[in-house]
Specification:
mainly alpha; globular; 71% helix
């Protein structure tokens, strides 16, 4: 015969079962699970904060472009380039989910703000700016790839970095900017594959290159920083496999084994 305590239902009956549905049962590993959950939650806060900072820089870049201050607008885009790379690396390295804020930040900064560097004074510039925004939107929304460690189409941040660096080096020359923007549009909508540029899990020279970009943004003149970022982006665009894709190919081979 069962004891009275064994016959008593848990607190709340069905209501209690409903509340506890999907929650982990108490076990000796619960503190560890809670610690892992809190750690993931804190990293989500970090990525959301960086994404929010990226979006704010993009908005300020838009205001600067409207006020004809292309130097300040380009400077903010270069900072956003490094911020977005850090956000993407942390997100993929820790397998975090819920990066919708970063998608909005990428569209605002590397779509709208970058397009406004072209200016909207004439109909041709305005038309090219609209095409650039549409290309960035198309790249973000429809170019998802099922192949690990790769992008489909040129990532928007590299196209933005090229435009910002070109704007600084040419003192906002509209003709050169329009030519570079047209080229970046073709690269973004092209269906070529580019390796993921993860900083945390990449070779040491890539980490040093990223650190060099951060240092130059902080202490170097505009021209030297712009040239460094331009060479960085162009090396990724024109030599994706030879320079940037070795680690990605190795990881892909390891996964297939």
């Amino acid at each position: 015969m069962r004891s009275r305590e064994q016959e008593l239902p848990g607190p709340g009956g069905l209501f209690w079962d409903t509340l506890t549905l999907g929650t982990p049962d108490p076990s000796p590993r619960s503190p560890r699970s809670i610690h892992l959950y809190m750690n993931e939650f804190s990293w989500k806060d970090v990525t959301n904060a960086l994404s929010l900072a990226n979006m704010i820089l993009g908005l300020f870049s838009i205001f600067c472009s409207v006020c004809k201050k292309c130097y300040s607008a380009s400077w903010m885009l270069l900072i956003s380039f490094l911020l977005d790379m850090a956000v993407g690396t942390i997100t993929r390295h820790l397998s975090l989910s819920g990066v919708e804020l970063n998608d909005f930040a990428v569209f605002t900064t590397f779509g709208l703000a970058s397009a406004l560097l072209l200016g909207v004074d004439g109909p041709l510039n305005a038309f090219l700016a609209i095409i650039y925004v549409l290309a960035a939107t198309f790249r973000l929304c429809f170019y998802s790839t099922g192949v690990p460690f790769t992008y489909k189409g040129l990532p928007c941040r590299y196209a933005s970095c090229v435009l910002a660096s070109t704007c600084l080096l040419t003192r906002g020359n509209t003709f050169i900017l329009s030519c570079m923007a047209s080229l970046m549009i073709l690269f973004m909508v092209d269906q070529s594959y580019y390796p993921r540029d993860e900083i945390l899990g990449s070779e040491n020279w890539k980490k040093l290159m990223y650190l060099g970009g951060v240092i130059m943004l902080l202490v170097s003149p505009f021209s030297l920083t712009a040239f460094y970022c331009l060479m960085w982006s162009l090396s990724y665009i024109f030599f994706p496999d030879a320079l940037w894709g070795k680690a990605a190919c190795f990881k892909l081979q390891q996964q297939r084994k």
